[in-house]
What we know:
By secondary structure, this protein is mostly helical. The protein is about 80% helix and about 0% strand. It is flat, with a radius of gyration of 23 Å. About 30% of the residues are buried. The model has no long low-confidence stretch (mean pLDDT about 85).
Amino acid sequence: MSPATARRKRTGRARDALLGAVGVLVAFAVCEALSRSGMVRRAFLPPASEVLVRAVELGGDTAFLNGVAATLETWATGLALACALAIPLGLLLGSVPAAGQAARVLIEFLRPVPSVALIPLVSLLLGAGSETTIALVTYASIWPVLFNTVYGLGETDPLAKDTLRAFGFGRLAVLLRAGLPSAAPFIAAGVRIAAATALILAVASEILAGFGEGLGTFIAQAGMVTDGTRDVLAGVVWAGALGLVVNLALTAVERRLFPWAPEHRGSRI
């Protein structure tokens, strides 16, 4: 990378960061003005500054941080299980056309079913513990990884596969030497998308359950308390911040591992 290119990328990243900060400040100012002016009752929308102060205070609350850790543990476990299931299955469906055709109807039947709709059924089967939340997170996260894996295999260079076959490599070797490297950037993108979905499901499941330990449980219980809106919004700020950090971390890992991927060429983020 030439010095001029590196300089342009640094300038682009700084500009994007500045624009992002401006967007946050505008949203903050609008919420603050709506509450302070009385256009929206404070019981429904406390001033953004008070919500932010409360969110900072929660950072020193051991019980709250234990709940956040429990949510992150559930999120990580569900996401890991989804990857462990979706990547091998995607490689199978993408490399064996007969298997892909046989599974298509079942996949298209299951994919539109929202995870939230499965909460009663999964709760009956697994109880009301963390196993239920992990199962729902896994179910919701499996689709982006699965479809990105299959799509990535479809983007494999035919010439590379034909060359390997010409040298006598079998189907598995062609898959591992040509298909998997080609699909890897797509799989990584699928994992990043699934990570956001998993966090949403982890928090939402805890909110709907309303008991136990977790960030969603904190939000649900705060919502049942008089004047608990500030705590609810402070919890939402934490959930949004966690999602932002996870997305930035996974994007950075993708850019470092797969700099040749089209979406990272000339990336400024």
